[in-house]
TrEMBL record:
Family: Belongs to the phosphohexose mutase family.
Keywords: Isomerase, Magnesium, Metal-binding, Phosphoprotein
Residue stretches making up the Alpha-D-phosphohexomutase alpha/beta/alpha domain: 16-150, 178-281, 293-396
Official protein name in the record: Phosphomannomutase
Organism listed in the record: Mycoplasma amphoriforme A39
GO BP field: carbohydrate metabolic process; purine ribonucleoside salvage
Molecular function GO labels: metal ion binding; phosphopentomutase activity
Length: 520
């Protein structure tokens, strides 16, 4: 480390929660994740639980994904919690577990919450600490701040005395996995596409927690030709055989495409390492069409509204930076979309708030994350995979369409052509937060009423969404925010128009102009 890196690594400011828990690099220092900072975080979390449930015997699930040192760090957290008299539930043999299964387990067993050692799809150098409450959803910002306040100061973390009590550890039976997958099976709508389930489907688990489980689950559903990308379906915290464990990045698909070409397959599906995010690509005109989180949200909405029977007004939960085409769709059925800040902790909380007062359709965000039933409160790649394949075969059997035409020919013809996209700029500088803040200020005080060919009707700070809104003519908008988990600045596009090809060109023109404005 050079002097600047040392200063950053040993800054005494507490680690803070982003949109999906605490994430940081693993390594020495008070700003990185290691044995001592995990003790610090776990102690703050444990003291928070003791204050929240003063007269109860607290039960907390501790879990981890495939990342390096996950077992060790989960044991560190377990030691801290049991030293405080908190019961800890571990999965059998402290095996790695997918995030959505933990969310389900909380609700099934009635535990007070969970702590998961995960950094989802971040680079291999990272790890994290993700916290759930008794609803199965991520804890909200208010509680995150309370945990941080209760953490011991960074300059004392080497001297923390921990007296673990292994008698407070209980192991969760493997039967929970069967119960979870049975619960998913029961929320699927149509099982009338049996004859088509022999199509070749390439699957990659990105070295993560779904690598073995998803093929087994899909086989139980009747899919007979799931072809795993063998190299990427081995648990590996180094992510050896992928250029990126994030399915949002095109390089994550390179090996899957080689498999698809070799096996002459037309569909590829992927789950990210902690299995909360699902993505699909379909071969179209000798090329690959990758579906975004917005597009999948639109497809889920259309399919559910058309095929599910509702006895109460239907509702959707999504973030402010996600597509608003679903608003048009659900209004036709007398329902509404509830908007939240970015991140599934806010989305899951809103789902819990509405609960069964209205009929649930889907909860989703633009970053390929969706919840397709009420059995959990976080995004769920297993549910999304099962429902997406159901829709894929439904479109093929009953509409004689692939998924691309189902979206662009059937859905857009009824509700309007829309172009949604997200562009992320990564900062390599250590002071990236300051750089991002300056750009946000520039956007908030932008003086022109025009961007490319679009008229800007209003610019405002969206307090709930945590983003800057540029409202454009024709029900379109641009939104800007900084990432809560990574050093990234993001631009979100929501453009309506007559033709998709023109909308894509218009988005490119806007992007070019924004790069000039922001010096990106």
């Amino acid at each position: 480390m050079d002097a600047n890196e040392l200063k950053t690594a040993f800054d005494l400011a507490p680690l803070v929660f982003g949109t999906a828990g605490i994430r940081s690099k693993m390594g020495p220092g008070t700003q990185y994740l290691n044995e001592f900072t995990y003790r610090q975080i776990a102690l703050g979390y444990g003291l928070f639980l003791k204050k929240k449930y003063p007269a109860q015997q607290i039960n907390i699930i501790v879990a981890h994904d495939n990342r390096n040192h996950g077992v060790f760090f989960s044991n560190v957290v377990t030691d801290v919690l049991t030293s405080l008299g908190i019961n800890v539930l571990l999965y059998d043999n402290n095996q790695l577990v997918a995030t959505p299964i933990v969310s389900y387990t909380i609700r099934k067993l009635g535990s007070h919450g969970a702590a998961i050692i995960t950094a989802s799809h971040n680079p291999k150098t990272d790890n994290g600490f993700k916290v759930y409450d008794s609803t199965g959803g991520q804890i909200l910002t208010e509680d995150c701040l309370k945990i941080v306040e209760l953490m011991p100061p960074a300059d004392l973390i080497l001297d923390l005395e921990i007296n673990a009590n292994n008698a407070l550890i209980t192991f969760i039976s493997d039967a929970i996995f069967d119960e979870y997958f049975k619960a998913i099976s029961q929320v699927l709508i149509n099982t009338d596409c049996q004859l088509l389930k022999h199509d070749k489907i390439i699957f990659s688990g990105q070295h993560g927690t779904a690598s073995k489980l998803l093929p087994q689950f899909l086989k139980r559903l009747g899919y007979t030709n799931i072809i795993p990308v063998v190299e990427q379906c081995e648990y590996d915290g180094d992510f050896t055989h992928t250029k990126s464990p994030n399915p949002e990045n095109l390089v994550a698909w390179e090996l899957s495409i080689k498999y698809a070409n070799f096996h002459n397959a037309n569909v590829i599906i992927q789950l990210d390492p902690d299995a909360d995010r699902f993505a699909i690509a379909v071969r179209k005109n000798h090329d690959w069409r990758f579906f975004t989180g917005n597009e999948m949200g639109i497809i889920y909405t259309y399919y559910m509204l058309k095929t599910k029977k509702f006895t109460k007004p239907p509702f959707i939960v999504s973030s402010y930076v996600s597509t608003n085409l679903v608003d048009r769709m659900i209004q036709k059925y007398g329902g509404q979309v509830y908007r939240t800040a970015t991140g599934f902790k806010s989305i899951g909380a809103k789902v819990t708030e509405i609960g069964e007062r209205e009929d649930f359709v889907v909860a989703f965000e633009e970053a390929i994350g969706a919840l397709n039933s009420l059995i959990g409160r976080d995004k769920d790649g297993f549910q999304a995979a099962a429902l997406t394949l159901e829709i894929y075969y439904h479109a093929k059997q009953f509409h004689h369409m692939d998924l691309v035409d189902f979206l662009e020919t059937l859905i857009y013809a009824e509700f309007g052509n829309i172009y949604n996209d997200t562009i992320a700029f990564t900062f390599k500088e250590l002071n990236w937060k300051d750089l991002a803040k300056k750009r946000m200020e520039k956007l908030l005080h932008y003086s022109s009423n025009q961007i490319a060919s679009r008229k800007i009707t209003r610019i405002e700070w969206n307090e709930v969404g945590g983003c800057i809104d540029w409202l454009l003519d024709g029900d379109s908008w641009l939104r800007f925010r900084t990432s809560g988990t990574e050093p990234k600045f993001k631009i979100y596009f929501n453009l309506y128009g007559d033709q998709l090809i023109k909308l894509k060109q218009e988005a490119m023109d806007i992007e070019k102009e924004l790069k000039t404005i922001l010096d990106l």
